[in-house]
From TrEMBL:
Keywords: Cytoplasm, Endonuclease, Hydrolase, Manganese, Metal-binding, Nuclease. GO terms for molecular function: manganese ion binding; RNA binding; RNA-DNA hybrid ribonuclease activity. SUPFAM superfamilies: Ribonuclease H-like (SSF53098). Belongs to the RNase HII family. Transmembrane segments: none annotated. The gene is rnhB. This is Ribonuclease HII.
Amino acid sequence: MSRRTSPDSPMLFEDVPLVPDFRLELNARKAGHWPVAGADEAGRGPLAGPVVAAAVILDPKRIPEGLNDSKQLSALRREELFVQILATATVSIASSSSTRIDETDIRKASLDAMRRAICGLSIPASFVLTDGLDVPPGLACPGQAVVKGDARSVSIAAASIVAKVTRDRMMARADSTFPAYGFAAHAGYGTAQHRAGIEKHGPCSLHRMTFSPLKKVQGIELDSD
């Protein structure tokens, strides 16, 4: 039996890229919540370095043009928007170290960094939009987790840019202390260059020892997150 698709079926638009806007923030405002913060993190997947979270409250009258998921932007464009966001919005940044990631797990460490970033805002948020599946526990306000939030909400997109640029800068500085791994080039992700550095020199204090292939170095049998 053949299956027909209605002209109005969302399946026809699966390949159309999402463009973030301010609608989720305005919906929260209509429900009585203001200001609204967006929150996101960068660095869940790397083998080394911290996970960095950012929380951003945008000024509706001064939203920088071109905000988008940080992964969709060039490094130069992220840097430009980073400067604009810091000049026009309320921003807070927090991180969880590789040690904390190993002591808990990457999900818990990411959510804790996000919680601290939100709690660190100089203007308390009345509502929070977070990227992904989870709202951090322990917040003083309600929140909403938004799948692909950095492609749907400009506040989350702004937070993703701030978190990404901050983390990239941190890893570039780490490169001068640990030059054997090429952190400035790959920010701690598991590239061939990075894995070759680990194999030749062993791990450093920034490495996440519960992540493969690093857990094999110490014979750790835990699954990586």
